[in-house]
């Protein structure tokens, strides 16, 4: 069996299905109010639909968990059920992307961000009012799709992920001086802001497939640790990336006084750095000072190590799944494991 030798590309395994989801996303955000339709559909247009990272993970997870739990009477029944289940999984992927996009639209309002995905942010192009309203519209549309699955636990998981997104954002907005320098607070906020949506939607994939609570927990753990690793790398790239490769301005966190892991680790080595951070960043010279300390410290390296720890935990969740000899199942699991390494080495 050679799949383990192959470098499976997570994206190409589900590329065809992702384009189905992209098309559906474009059609579900319609409205009889033209301005609302164009605002809600803004990030689903060709060229700005983004990496579709979450739908990709969810579709791979759906296949990775494809371990039949019941003997089925005929192959025909099996096939019909498999097809129906796949459609339900695609709906979860679609809903997750809508929630994600709604959170990005809100985020750009709070961050006064002019650009997103290499184009003008929705708030920049259409103004804050239309941005906020159309993001709310997207959330409502997402739930309209979600309820058709008729699974209350899944609805509850997705609702939790939105509550966590909001809580994470407000946590970040309202940190006290003490919380600002706490790694624990930072990780909690990071879970809320980035990992909760992935972890809860991964769990939803398992529940819709009628998997055991144990399998559902492994799916959740994968999403959680992948999300945490992803955000830790994102926080590194905010310092080391540039606007051309990121499609968005760098140093945004620090400029907004948001202290992330690289700085928290740097402060552990150079406690005097917190004095500069406390002064705020109205004066650009303070940013230079912080960057100087960061360069002298192991802040970036230690953040990278923490990201790797979570990436490995994510990979372990996949390898702990009940064994399967199905080629597709094994391919998807391998791709999910590869993905944990890919996000560590990404540079945009
Ligand atoms: C990006 O963070 C922002 C998020 C991942 C979520 C933000 C959540 C909200 C704004 C709460 C409202 C959400 C909903 C669904 C009602 P960032 O600013 O660190 O990253 P960026 O560099 O991509 O801007
Ligand atoms: Mg932002
Ligand atoms: Mg933000």
UniProtKB/TrEMBL annotation:
Q: What is its main location?
A: mitochondrion
Any one Gene Ontology BP term: ubiquinone biosynthetic process
Its signal peptide is none
GO CC field:
mitochondrion; transferase complex
Which cofactors go with this protein?
Mg(2+)
What UniProt keywords are attached to this protein's entry? Isoprene biosynthesis, Magnesium, Metal-binding, Mitochondrion, Transferase
- Spell out the molecular function terms from Gene Ontology: metal ion binding; prenyltransferase activity
Where can this protein be found? Mitochondrion
**UniProt KW Magnesium keyword:** yes
Q: What is the top-level taxon of the source organism? A: Eukaryota
Family classification: Belongs to the FPP/GGPP synthase family.
Q: Could you identify this protein by its name?
A: Geranyl diphosphate synthase
The root-end lineage is: Eukaryota, Viridiplantae, Streptophyta, Embryophyta, Tracheophyta
Residue range from the parent sequence? 49 to 396 of 510
